[in-house]
Design goal:
Strand order of the largest sheet: 1-5
Number of domains: 1
Number of helices: 17
Structural class: mainly alpha
Number of strands: 10
Distance between the termini: 53 Å
Largest sheet: 2 strands, antiparallel
Domain SusD-like N-terminal: 46-247
Keywords: Cell outer membrane, Membrane, Signal
Helix content: 40-55%
CATH topology: Serine Threonine Protein Phosphatase 5, Tetratricopeptide repeat
Subcellular location: Cell outer membrane
Order of helices and strands: HHHEHHHHEEHHHEEHHEEEHHHHEEH
CATH architecture: Alpha Horseshoe
Protein name: RagB/SusD family nutrient uptake outer membrane protein
Strand content: 5-15%
Radius of gyration: 22 Å
InterPro entries: SusD-like_N, SusD_RagB_dom, TPR-like_helical_dom_sf
């Protein structure tokens, strides 16, 4: 069995070798990669001003394609949604110590400065740009028949990377999906070509989700059941992200269908009874993870972020997550230590089998299938509790749904999913939440369906592109 440490070393060497090879073959001089607005972004932090000369960068092999997709931006995602959600709180002193005004403002929903430098969009559109290069170049590469499956895998990974990036951005920069308004509501600029001169106006919300759906379904058809590295997508991951997409659209039967498809490929769970408590108790590449994506934020470090008091209290004694996810601070508050990134400063964002059990359970409960819904929930909980676990029961499907959503909240803490869950559940009065922050004698409130559930497009991008800003 390959140990996690060995696996990390192997993947690091694989990426380093792959990228070094690409750099020898492809001299890519980038000052400005225009993406969504006719501008592309050469890093996650700033805009530079020149476009790539494709005559200097001609990928010629599948190895080159792998190097492009193995770029860290494919796996690195934004954490601003987690910062804006309700999993943790700051004291005023700790909030004042957050290094950037941007991150402080996200925490109190002062979104005028959120992503002000375009960093979040930069990373995602760089991923999309890389995927577009691969999708456009692959048909021009001559391959041997023995390389056919690898060709399909790379093509599938490119579709997956583009669809996943668009889905994440949709939860930040477009309003929550409602079928009644989707045809006219603002979606994302859909950059589907590596041509930097091709304009990319904002599509509708419906067009945006159709593109995400199309990309992820293509990925699911092309990707293999197993991948050579946890940082490369496989079929179960594509089905899982499709399940997320349908969940965010509140299309619950489809969400359950694709969660089931993912679980048919991989249904393995970690048994928390076998996990020893430590500062980072979970292996980075464990069997629950379907795709390794990660994020970090200066807001959500162990030293700053204090787990919401009511949320911590909701974990019962005997629930191993209470022991493994949290550690007590000197002031008797709690910090989160349960990252599947095996880190106290980096957080795992990719889909897991546990998430798929919860998605399928929710779909079944909403369809009135109480017994099957509880079966999924109890399968997961047996692997989360010690030997005192008593299976959950419910009088009806709605009661089962409440149990499932409560466990979803506890299971998926600090996975970057809570913001999207708040957005969709705010349409149901029974589950809608009023969020509050308290800093000294100041109180900040976010009501259900507030316009601040949509982040503004960074002003720098508005000025350069002329695309429409989100309603504020």
């Amino acid at each position: 069995m390959i140990k996690a440490k060995d696996m990390k070393t192997s993947i690091h060497k694989q990426r380093k070798h792959s990228l070094a090879s690409l750099n020898m073959k492809l001299i890519i001089k980038v000052k400005l990669i225009l993406l969504m607005i006719g501008i592309s972004l050469s890093s996650c932090q700033d805009f530079l001003e020149a476009k790539p000369d494709k005559s200097l960068a001609v990928p010629t092999s599948l190895r080159d394609m792998n190097a492009i997709l193995d770029n860290n931006t494919t796996n690195f995602y934004s954490f601003i949604a987690e910062v804006a959600a309700d999993n943790f709180y700051h004291t005023e002193a700790l909030w004042n110590a957050v290094p950037t005004e941007r991150d402080r403002n996200i925490y109190i929903w002062e979104n005028t400065a959120a992503d002000g430098d375009g960093g979040t969009l930069a990373g995602r559109y760089r991923t999309i740009f890389n995927a577009n290069i691969v999708l456009e170049t692959l048909p021009e590469i001559s391959i041997q028949e023995s390389e056919r499956e690898e060709y399909k895998r790379i093509q599938g990974f490119a579709y997956f990377a583009r669809g996943y990036a668009l889905l994440e951005m949709a939860q930040l920069f477009t309003e929550p999906y409602q079928e009644s308004i989707a045809a006219t509501a603002k979606g994302l600029p859909l950059k589907l070509s590596a041509d930097v001169n091709e304009p990319s106006p904002r599509a509708s919300l419906e067009e945006t989700y159709k593109r995400i759906e199309g990309d992820l379904k293509q990925a699911a058809q092309l990707l293999p059941a197993q991948s050579s590295s946890p940082t490369r997508a496989n079929k179960a991951a594509a089905y899982a992200v499709l399940a997320r997409m349908y969940l965010y659209q509140r299309k619950y039967p489809q969400a359950g269908l694709y969660a089931d498809s993912s679980l048919q490929v991989n249904n393995q769970l970690l048994d928390y009874k076998t996990i020893n408590n430590s500062a980072t108790p979970f292996p980075i590449f464990n069997r629950e993870k379907l795709f390794y994506a990660y994020a970090s934020s200066s807001n959500v470090t162990v030293a700053r972020a204090k787990v919401d008091t009511l949320l911590y209290a909701s974990y019962a004694n005997g629930d191993r997550r209470k022991l493994l996810f949290f550690r007590r601070n000197a002031d008797n508050s709690y910090a989160f230590q349960g990252s599947y990134a095996q880190s106290t400063i980096t957080f795992a964002m990719g889909p897991t089998t546990a998430e798929m059990y919860l998605t399928r359970a929710e779909s079944r409960a909403r369809a009135g299938n109480k017994d099957e819904a509880l079966q999924d929930l109890n399968t997961l909980m047996r692997n989360r509790w010690d030997n005192t676990f008593v299976p959950f029961t419910a009088a009806n499907a709605n009661e089962a749904l409440r149990l499932i959503l409560a466990e979803r909240r506890k299971e998926l803490i600090f996975r970057g999913l809570r913001w999207a869950d708040l957005r969709r559940l705010n349409f149901e009065p029974e589950f809608a939440q009023v969020l509050q922050r308290k800093l000294g004698n100041r109180t900040f409130t976010l009501l259900p369906n507030d316009k601040r559930y949509v982040f503004p497009i960074p002003e720098s991008i508005i000025q350069l592109s002329g695309i429409a800003q989100n309603d504020r």
